[in-house]
Give the backbone structure.
Amino acid sequence: MNEFQNIKSEINIENSIESLYILKNIFSFLSEKQKLNIIIYNKHIQNKIDINIEDYKKISGIYKEIKKNGKGKEYDISTNIMIFEGEYLNGKRNGKGKEYEKRKGKLKFEGEYLNGKRNGKGKEYYLNGELKFEGEYLNEKRNGKGKEYIYNDTLVFEGEYLNGKRNGKGKEFYDNGNLQFEGEYLDGKRWNGKGYNIEGKINFEIVKGNGKGKE
């Protein structure tokens, strides 16, 4: 194979390949598909590093380039940490799945996918495991009804989203659960509605983008 011959002419494979990590460095100038072909079709290399083809696919990130159907997993090539597990169709995330942070492996999202993107219902999490958002998605962005949370699963917003921003009807809450604002949002900003102080009294009003205070 051409790729194999080119590598062997520049590198002493007999002495250099001692682990999967060194293998990645040696093959760094090749595409993942080229590397996989070399590993699969050269038993000498497989025997030298005692390699498991499926494990190598995971570590090298080749799963991202091979069409997958059914349940599967993805691993980050730099950290060797699992970054996704779930369902695939024709090589893309389709169905239910979970995303993980690539450095610490913490769960950051779980929900539904379509054609490789977040579509449908889902939940986002902070690194400490607490809920950050739950609601609906369209092409990776928050779209439809949803709820936002801060520390200790404290609800701070409930309403409608469009293209990742608050758009439409919604409510904001203080940390203690009291209503802070209720009305309509446009492009992520308060547009029309009433604001309340911590005691529940109206203290301002916004009419189509123009606000004014009330005692």
In short: Residues 32-41 form the longest helix (10 residues). Confidence is low (pLDDT under 50) at residues 1-19. Residues 197 and 203 are 6 Å apart (CA to CA).
